[in-house]
Amino acid sequence: MTSPSVPAARRRQRSTRLLVSGGLLGLALLTVVAAAASGSWLVATIACAVAAVLGAAATRITYTEVADTRRAWARDRAEQAQAYSALTETRTSEQALYVADTSGRLARHEATITRLETRLADAAAEVAATREELAAEQAHVLAVQQASADELSRLARRLEDAEERAAMAVVQVAELEQELDVVQAELIAWQSTGAALRRKRA
Fold first, then answer.
1. What is the pTM of this model?
2. Cα–Cα distance list, 183 to 12, 41, 86, 117, 190 (Å)
């Protein structure tokens, strides 16, 4: 972009040229008026010639000023176009980097969700198996209620172990479900943030 001092210099140069052009036209007018007042054909002819030369010089100065002004405007527009092109390239690069980063994070979140869902399914299967084992132990305990005290104590211990494993499996399932909810919430937040930034850049 042009510096502030350059347009000021151009304005001063244009004012000088226009003043000179106006002065030449005024001088031509005074020459014609003086020749007309003198009443001499020779003086009038010379005055007309001088006025024509002065008018041509004023026209040339004005044309030069207009041409320089147009060239300066074209140069400014070209510099602005280059600046806008560079800015567009920078923004495009930043947008590409942002999209790549967001896509990577989204892929990582989706992989984490998939992994947690798999672990949750495994934990649910383990809970189901543990519950089946617990039901079998309970049925077995009911079947051997008439057994000896030692056998009954042993079966009670096995029942307690099965219940403890079932409780631990339930806790693990709850933890996995909570972790899955957190990751899904983060993914939704990333997606909404990415959409807002894309609308803002657009």
1. 0.39
2. 66, 103, 39, 11, 11
The answer to whether residues 148 and 76 belong to one domain is no
Digit-coded pLDDT (tens) for 140-197: 777 766 656 666 677 778 888 888 888 888 888 888 888 888 888 888 877 777 666 6
**In terms of domains, do 126 and 160 share one?**
yes
CATH number at residue 104: 1.10.287
Question: Do residues 44 and 35 lie in contact, with contact meaning Cβ atoms separated by under 8 Å?
Answer: yes
Tokens of 107: 């892929």
List the domain range (segments joined by +) for residue 174. Answer: 97-201
Copy the structure tokens of residue 82: 């280059």
